[in-house]
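Dear Dr. K.,

Following up on our conversation at the group meeting, I've run the structure prediction for Diaminopimelate decarboxylase from Pontibacter qinzhouensis. I'm pasting the input sequence below exactly as I used it, so you can double-check it against your construct before we proceed with anything downstream. Let me know if the numbering doesn't match what you have in your notebook.
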Amino acid sequence: MLKDHLQELQQHDTPLYVYDLDLLRQTLRKAQDEAARYGYQVHYALKANANAPILAEVKAHSFGADCVSGNEVKCAIENGFSPEHVVFAGVGKSDAEINFALDNDIFCFNCESSHELAILNELAAAKGKTARIALRINPNVNANTHKYITTGLEENKFGINAWELPDVLSQLQELSNLKLTGLHFHIGSQITDLSSFKNLCTRVNEFQEWFQQHNLELEHVNVGGGLGVDYYHPDGQPIPDFEAYFALFHQFLQVRPGQQVHFELGRSLVAQCGTLLSRVLYIKHGKTTNFAILDAGMTELIRPALYQSYHKIENLSSQLAEDKYDVVGPICESSDCFGKAVVLPETNRGDLIAIRTAGAYGQVMTSEYNLRDRAKAIYLHQ
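The predicted structure tokens came back this morning:
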């Protein structure tokens, strides 16, 4: 796709984010079709990418919005998502954020602590409103992913622990401005071992049984997201296996009569459609390695520095004999490195470099560290 547009891309300044809208549409259509087989509702996690053209495509495919800040709630509504399909999660919602969501009558607050329940009830009462809530429960399930993006273990800050539930139910009886409508679970991100989701289903079934024993019928259960993508082979597997993902939940999740099942997918929907484009500034030959110094750095894509994550790196300009390079950025940090000993065609100043699978947690996490300019974006289609 990128090489088909190489002449056009050469005209743009870098660093530059490039989005393949055709691939995005194919991915969204596949996810929605597979979810619809079982009547599942998918909310798109805005934290992955909140660019307006991306959100327009997501909304056009009938996804809801999963938000983790007040500004994400505002962004979703401003970009046309119905408040009836907006979910507000997050372990640290401020009073102002809660009030904004209350004023817009969003679908559900996913609540993560007994203290949050008390504050939400107080703020809802002040407005004469009843807030619909789901309890985010920490299921203590290992997602087998990077420790920074694991969210479902008792050592993590997220969710209400199982041993707290009896006290929480007693508390809810006194909170008359809250309506318990569902349960929420999320165990982590970039999960490629589907057995983790099977284990999640087992735990969700156990919690559902516990709530039924306490005479509580819940309208919906939100099992989170976290489905990973193939960073190593973006062209070989551009669309995740949504068929196997949703089928697993259909097989192992015990859904109550009339109960809705919700998901919150982000990375799996948008990661592969985005590429960070950069130019080589300098080639530096060291004793043990060569350095290809780019005009993009950790300010444009922080994932390799933060998570030690892999992104496929391609030289779009050269077809010369191969060599190895440490591909690094211009930022005054030794962690500003996209890849070590990367095999590339002989690389020279001005060559156009593509850093693939950057559509999720790429542009949305950019910063102005070193007083850098923010990277711009363009959107391609055939």
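Two things stood out to me. The two ends are 8 Å apart (CA to CA). The domain at 3-15+272-380 is CATH 2.40.37.10 (Lyase, Ornithine Decarboxylase; Chain A, domain 1).

Best regards,
J.T.
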